[in-house]
Write a structure and sequence with these properties.
The protein is built from two helices and five strands; from the N terminus they run H-E-E-E-E-E-H. The protein is α+β, with helices and mostly antiparallel strands. The protein has a five-stranded antiparallel sheet with strand order 3-2-1-4-5. The termini are far apart.
Length: about 130
Amino acid sequence: MKKENKIFWIFMSIVIVVLLLMIFFGEKSFLKHTKYTIATITSDFHYRQTTKGAGTDFIFFLNNKKIKSGSSTGTFIKGDNYLIAFDSLHPNNNSIFQVNVTDSIYVYPKNGWKLKEIPFKVDTTALKRQLKKW
């Protein structure tokens, strides 16, 4: 085997190991630092576009900063508000639940709620189960 081929395969092996570690620790971070807030659906379900994959787009706010994201699963109504879980260290890691809270009265949290602080009734067991699937 040529020296260039060996260097290439060593480099690729290192990249793969680093990516696997990032995935593993990213999932742990999400489950360890989970907070909840409200997201507003900004689009109907759309199929793959040039810049986005298929799904529904939504926004939510943390510390007065707008965060845009999307979900490829679930059925959501444009303009309605839904409960979302996010990694408080990396808010772009998030998961939206099919818990429509549009008619609920609440104050948006500046930094998100912990599970016990959510001001409306939710099935916490179902939320935890869905997060573990994430």
